[in-house]
Design goal:
64% helix, mainly alpha, HTH_67, two-stranded antiparallel ribbon
């Protein structure tokens, strides 16, 4: 479904922003907690397991490399030990069951709607344009079978597109010479990222490590005070997103301008319904 018409600026980014919540809603769902508990996978180990399971029974180093923003020592508390409790395939099966139940609960009859089937077709078409090389999380997920049910096929495609963009974003962060803590701190200071409270609660970094990252960013002229980007810092964050857009343009060019516009419209509608149903906690993003 390629199109000769040029994509509008940021069309791929806007589409990704509408798609991504459909993928990520299951991380906060009680259905996932229940499914993983049935495998004796509890707490933080669950997130590391479900997202890295397509890679196989990897160790903490591979997870740190591909997830980027989490402290290696935090990951090592759970990986690879989690693979002695449950196999990657068992985790993948549990995840898909949880996604199915979660989406049915949150979206009701919409999971069987013509719009859902249309969104799945469009998103899978876009994913055909993704590239495997140097994109480990995308490529590992691309090896998984496409589920038959439209809402699960759409979720699978949204996952592929999310991880493809994420892999490219890590390349942009490395090119900008931002380490994981600096990336988190500068994103928080932009007003678009996770709050410091959320970072400390989920990523494993200490207050002292956040303070040290702030000092390094101030030394580069990117941050002023504790949480405010300078003009140069704002420019760097904008350039990061432009670079990520460029590295992620292939799937949206493959889909074409009309297809991207329609997929964005459909995705935004489903995301709005998820938000209205309370799929996401607000605490992690609340300003301190």
């Amino acid at each position: 479904m390629t199109s000769s018409s040029a994509l509008p600026e940021r069309a791929g980014r806007h589409c990704h922003n509408a798609l991504n919540p459909f993928h990520s809603a299951h991380y906060f769902a009680p259905e996932l907690t229940a499914e993983l508990s049935g495998l004796n996978v509890e707490g933080r180990a669950g997130y590391f397991a479900v997202r890295s399971a397509p890679l196989g029974a990897v160790g903490a180093g591979a997870v740190a490399a591909t997830f980027f923003s989490f402290k290696h020592e935090l990951i090592a508390q759970h990986v690879p030990q989690v693979w002695t409790v449950a196999t990657p395939q068992a985790v993948l099966d549990a995840r898909l069951r949880a996604v199915d139940a979660c989406l049915r609960r949150l979206l009701g009859d919409a999971v069987q709607s013509p719009e859902m089937a249309e969104a799945a077709k469009l998103a899978l078409t876009a994913a055909e344009g993704c590239a495997r090389h140097a994109r480990p999380l995308y490529s590992a997920h691309a090896d998984l079978p496409v589920p038959e049910a439209p809402h699960l096929a759409y979720w699978h495609a949204a996952t592929l597109l999310r991880e493809h963009r994420g892999d490219g974003h890590l390349m942009a962060l490395l090119d900008a010479e931002l380490d994981p803590v600096e990336a988190l701190v500068s994103h928080a200071a932009s007003g678009h990222g996770m709050s410091y409270r959320g970072i400390l609660a989920t990523r494993g970094w200490t207050p002292e490590e956040l303070t040290a990252a702030q000092e390094r960013l101030r030394g580069r002229g990117l941050l002023v005070g504790a949480e405010e980007l300078t003009e140069a810092g704002t420019a760097l964050r904008k350039e990061l997103e432009r670079t990520t857009d460029r590295l992620d343009r292939a799937p949206y060019e493959h889909l074409g301008a009309a297809g991207v516009a329609r997929l964005t419209e459909l995705a935004a509608g489903f995301t709005a319904r998820l938000m209205e149903a309370g799929a996401f906690p607000q605490a992690l993003f609340a300003r301190d």
